[in-house]
Amino acid sequence: MTLNTATIVNYKNIAEARLEFSAKLNCLIGNNGQGKTNVLDAIYYMSMCRSFSSASDNSAVIRHGEPYMMLQGSYTRQEAPLEISVALQRGKRKIVRRDGKEYQRLSQHIGLLPVVMVSPMDLDLVRGSGEERRRFMDLIISQNDNEYLDALIRYNKAVEQRNAMIKKEMRDPLLYETVEQEMMRQATLIHQRRSQWVEQFLPTFMHYYHAVAGENETVSLHYKSHLNDGTLQEHLASTRERDMILGYTTRGIHRDDLELLLNDYPMRQTGSQGQCKTYTIALRFAQFDFLKANNATVPILLLDDIFDRLDACRVERIIDVVSSDRFGQIFITDTNRTHLDEIVARHGGGHCLMQVENGNVITVKGGAQS
Fold first, then answer.
1. Which residues contact 228 (CB under 8 A, 6 or more apart)?
2. Separation of CA 312 from chain center
3. Measuring CA to CA, which residue among 208, 235, 233 is closest to residue 219?
4. How distant, in Å, are the alpha carbons of 76, 101, 113, 151, 308 from that of 43?
5. How far apart are CA 295 and CA 91, in angstroms?
6. Residues 58-81: pLDDT tens digits?
7. pLDDT at residue 253 tops 70
8. Do the strands 14-20 and 2-11 form a parallel or antiparallel pair, or are they unpaired?
9. Model pTM?
């Protein structure tokens, strides 16, 4: 799959950009805060119907002082043309269209255009709460498993219903049983798919970590879930009184976590900045391989400021990985053109180089100027 052209209007600090891309390597160079990341985020938005960095507030992606934003992308997917458009006005719902036809549900779009973004924000996977790591699992699995996404949506709605009943201090066991039956049905499938995903994902992740860090460090992933130890029905029954006191549901797959281990210790406690960044890069590269193996099309890879906080040895190894032919279309940002020039030289395929300054994107080589 390739993104051939994109039109970006009022997206964050980008007033307007009309861009043509290389089917292979696309490099964006510029100082910090100029808009390089926003170009990548716009591409991510067209795939995932949300910003990589502003998931909690849709209006945050609209340029200051403007009433709307608009994105348009022309893709080639499985050798066929595909047009995607996204429109969002302040205070209104977003509208996503495929070949001019509006989706009834945004979940119908997820997985059509698989994308992987490597970002400095990925450190939240290590340092942040379990919610960050659950979202990581959910976004990967749901991109090629609509049944999983549907179960996740249904489960979360049931949890919201149960929490509302708890806050209203409702005591009728039949009402709780109805909601909890729905939670249990969906939780069983979600737990099964997450367990299978970790088993398939782990060897690839370990491969990429060692490819960047060498063989002297041991890494692993451990899926933590209440359903690893008893059924959800048992957990809900045993904690119902406690939940009534606390005011929310304390057990279930919405509390799952992915434990990240380095040399058998939690990464968040023992990892240096360079090790943490290497860890998250390996997670994203493994995400790419998983989506590629389980999807009908090759994902787009977005690499944002990937070399920061890494020593020269790890930078060199990442350049080797990125320059291989296992990836499809790549977008990469950096403040240092030296790294990008080295990747271009090793990659050997076609490339496009763009300069980004104060929200303006100028094509230096390849594509069309904007």
1. none
2. 27
3. 208
4. 14, 19, 10, 27, 22
5. 35
6. 889 999 999 999 999 999 999 999
7. yes
8. antiparallel
9. 0.91
